[in-house]
Amino acid sequence: MIAGDEKVFLNDGLGTFVEGQSVPVSEIGNPHAIAFADIDSAGDLDFAITATDSRNWLVRNDIDSGNWLRVEFVSPQCQAGAFGSKVSVFRIPADGGAFVGMREAKGNTGYLAQDEPVLHFGLGAIASVDVVVDFVDGSQVTMPGVAANQRILIDECTP
User: Fold this and answer.
1) For residues 127 and 82, is the Cβ–Cβ distance under 8 A?
2) Those residues with Cβ within 8 angstroms of residue 14's Cβ, 6 or more apart along the chain or in another chain
3) Which of the residues 7, 76, 128, 133 could staple to 156 if both were Cys, CB 3.0 to 4.6 A apart?
């Protein structure tokens, strides 16, 4: 999704994006940015479009794209969101152990917008995964066999 563009592109799970349904944006005056969050706790990413010449828009995503996983974490230095850390998700070894995806925790995502500090992974038909978190201090946490369709908290805070 690009701020101000009606087209929405969906990841087909094979490394390409296909055009999805459109979002009516003609009433958005001077759109600037998009921020993503799961506002309704449905396991899909909803989004807000910020604008300077009209009201901001909140768009609820109701597309069912299969299983998902949301990862919230706290760094060993007790920083909520653990910005700069990377989360990688793999199929469990019994399913081939293949790489599914990686996300980096960021403190900002653009002008006038900030994504929710929870990392979202669309899993499609995958029912469980291994989760690996690489913190910026070099430490690593591995959680094997995490079931899909849940929000997990990885709290490594050691005050």
Assistant:
1) no
2) none
3) 76
**Angle at CA of residue 93, ends 147 and 75, nearest 5°:** 55
Q: 130: which 2 tokens?
A: 């291994």
Helix (H) or strand (E) holding 83: none
Residue 66 and residue 143: Cα distance in Å, rounded?
21
| Whole-angstrom distance, CA of residue 156 vs CA of residue 136 | 12
Farthest CA pair distance, the chain: 53
Residue 61: name the closest of 88, 34, 86 by CA: 34
Classify strands 150-155 and 67-74 as parallel, antiparallel or unpaired: parallel
In the structure, what pLDDT confidence band is assigned to residue 23 with cuts at 50, 70 and 90? confident
Q: What is the pLDDT of residue 29?
A: 81
Contacts of 127 (CB under 8 A, 6+ apart): 67, 147, 148
Q: What is the pTM of this model?
A: 0.82
